[in-house]
Amino acid sequence: MAELRVLNKEKKSSTVQDSAALTTQLAAGLEKIGLAMKSRTWRREGRAGLGPLQRQVLTLLQSKPEQRARVSTVANELAVRLPTASEVIATLERKQLVRRRHDMTDRRVVVAQLTAKGNRACTPTSRMPDRLATATEALSEPEQVVLLTSLVKMIRSLQEQGEISATRMCVSCQFFRPNQHASSDRPHHCDYLKASFGDSSLRLNCQVYEPATT
What crossing angle do the helices spanning 52-63 and 2-48 adopt, rounded to 10°? Predict the structure, then answer.
């Protein structure tokens, strides 16, 4: 019996170590992907005269209704300080990629809007996510769904830890109702669209997003 307890203890210890090793490997893999994409972005955008943060601002504005957003919103969603966001937007305005205006309802608030030139700078062929989309095609559809749901959980965890700002995801939206339907393929419900959907349709950046109240 004593020998059996020792074996069970060793097996449990080995399982814990294997789990820790797996999470370390996953973190290292994600870091490698991030570094590869960041390096490629620096090379490409450097030639185009745009820094990575400038590109992020343009892409964010393009995703917004009317391609405009408050400077404070840009700072919050990109997890940068307000002065940093203001400086980047001012630089983009000098390049005629963005124009700044005072909000019609509150003159103290500054709004940034994408110009036609800025919109052209966000063509799909120049955007970083397309390379990642190509890479994910190496996965089967079930693997892609698992990866998407896993990313949603990881991003949500980072939000709750205060490591990143809230993103426009389904799981943090006031319209999202998880597991509301018996269907195994479309269990979730969106109150805004009044439609059911499955894990493969979870959004990480939705234009009709409204933060859920806590």
Answer: 90
Residue 143: give the domain boundaries: 139-214
Residues 100 and 21: their CA atoms lie apart, in Å, by 49
Residues of the chain with pLDDT under 70: 1-20, 35-49, 123-130, 165-167, 214
Q: How many domains does the chain have?
A: 3
For 175, counting Cβ atoms within 10 Å of its Cβ (0-12 exposed, 13-18 middle, 19+ buried), the class is middle
Q: Using a CB cutoff of 8 Å and minimum separation of 24, what contacts does 3-10 make? A: none
- pLDDT tens digits for range 116-153: 999 888 765 444 556 777 888 888 988 988 988 988 88
Assess if residue 113 is contained within a domain.
Answer: yes
Write the CA distances from 94 to 80, 87, 132, integer angstroms. 20, 11, 31
Q: What is the pLDDT of residues 159-172, one digit of tens each?
A: 778 777 666 788 88
The amino acid occupying position 100 is: R
